[in-house]
Amino acid sequence: xxxxxxxxxxTLIVVVVILIFGIVSISNSGANVAASGxxxxxxxxxxxxxxxxxxxxxxxxxxxxxxxNKDPKIAQDENExxxxxxxxxxxxxxxxxxxIRTVDYDVYKNYNYSxxxxxxxxxxxxxxxxxxxxxxxxxxxxxxxxxxRIRFDLIDRQSAYNEALDMALERAAEKAASMAESxxxxxxxxxSIEEDSSTKSFWESDLTNYVSSSSAYTDSGNGSISSGQLQxxxxxxxxxxxx
Length: 243
Fold this sequence. Notes:
The protein has four helices and eight strands; from the N terminus they run H-E-E-H-E-E-H-E-H-E-E-E. It has 243 residues and is α+β, with helices and mostly antiparallel strands.
C-alpha cells in the first residue's frame, strides 16, 4: 500500500480520537457546572410516624363444619344439615343473616382412606366485640368443628388512620425543624410528601385450637377472648426546602 495513503489514514484516526475526547471533556465540564451551580437548592429529607391506639368495634369470626363419608352425597347432606343448625343457633343469638357470609366450600376425596370430605366455612361479623367468646361457644355447641380465625377491626378505620397520618406529618415537621436549627438553618417549605401504606392495622388470631382454650389466643382459662386495642400506624416521608 502506498505510504502516503497509510499516513493519511493514520492522521485521520488521530483527528477523530482527538475530537471524541474533546466532546466528552466538554460534556463533563457542562455537567459539573450544573451540579455546582447556584440553581441547586438545599433540602432535608425526614420521615414521621404516627400511632393511634383505639378499641376495636367489630369482630370477624370464621368457622364452619367438616363432614366425611364414603358416599359424597351423604357427606354433603350431613354438612348442609349441620350448617343449617349453625345458622339457626346464630339467628337465635340475634345475629342477622346480613352478618353471615360463606367464605369457603370444598368437596374432595381422601384417597388414602377412600372417603370424601365436605367443608363449609362462614364468616360472622359482630359489632358487639365482647360477644366473641359467646358466639364461638354457641356455634361449638351447635356442631361447628372447624375454627379458622378471629379478626378485630374498625368499622370506620379511615378516620383513625387519618388521625395517625396527621400525627406523622407533625412528627416529620418537628424533626425537620430541629435538624435544620442545629445547622443554623430554617425550614422554608415542603417539596414532596410520600405516604407509606404498608402498615397493617388490625389484630388477627388463628382459632384452630380454640376448642381446647389455647392460652396463645385467650386471656383466661375459660376460653374468653380479649380484643385489646388496635394500633393504627401511619408513616410519611417528607422532603423540605431549607433557607
